[in-house]
């Protein structure tokens, strides 16, 4: 009797495991298929590029203009069909040599963690989406745009971001492309470092709170902290007034660990 019960328990566990694996790969394939379709609709704006190539879509001349002293923004044409599907999209990010080629979302319904487990179509998805910190803004751009994403073992989302732990990978892929709804952008990697989500009692540089420094001193302190934590010297620096982008994902080297890549905007 005990042996039969053990067999039944083992069978139930095996079925559950196979079911989980099957669902995991279903979600992965669905995500890859959906992103592929979105990328095709994006045209050139969704393609990774580096300065000096003709792959980066130039911003239309009328994407920004002055109207009675006010800054007026226009959505880049490639984003218009995606905005029709989901008003929460705020940009697109791509990194050559990785699987990173995704829309970037931002929750506007008060749930800052919504895109941790929802995809572009707002379906539940364990891969989640890449999403911008709710405190950041692409309309009146904050100095630093912080984008979060899961570290998926498949390499999906920011699963390949820790390739930047290797200096040789960095040297082969020193640029990130992030285009917001309103402007194109090429960003030079400035720092790559390990960090963590700190408790209130911890002492350390909270990169995730470095968003919109108001003084040159505050900006300089933040940049110095990030560069001092970097695993290698990229030779890229930033001064007050420069625009930064910070990519953050989980890192399993320590409890509540994070791996972070910071880049400076160098070209439209």
Short structural summary:
This protein has 268 residues and is an alpha+beta fold. The protein has four helices and ten strands. It has one domain (31-267): Sortase (Sortase, Chain: A), CATH 2.40.260.
Oligomeric state = single chain
Low-confidence stretches: 16-21, 44-63
Provide a count of the helices.
4
Number of strands: 10
Superfamily (CATH H level) name: Sortase
Q: What strand line-up does the widest sheet have?
A: 3-4-5-6-9-10-8-7
Average residue-wise pLDDT:
84
List the secondary-structure elements in sequence, H or E.
HEEHEEEEHEEHEE
Q: Which structural class do the helices and strands define?
A: alpha+beta
Query: Radius of gyration, rounded?
Result: 20 Å
CATH architecture term:
Beta Barrel
Main β-sheet, in a few words?
A: 8 strands, mixed, barrel
How helical, in percent, are the residues? Answer: 25-40%
According to CATH, the fold-level topology is: Sortase, Chain: A
The N- to C-terminal Cα distance equals 72 Å
Written account of the structure:
By secondary structure, the chain is of the alpha+beta class. Mean pLDDT is 84; it is low at 16-21 and 44-63. The strands form two sheets. Strands 3-4-5-6-9-10-8-7 form an eight-stranded mixed beta barrel. The longest helix has 41 residues, at 2-42. It is built from four helices and ten strands. The protein has one domain (31-267): Sortase (Sortase, Chain: A, Beta Barrel), CATH 2.40.260.
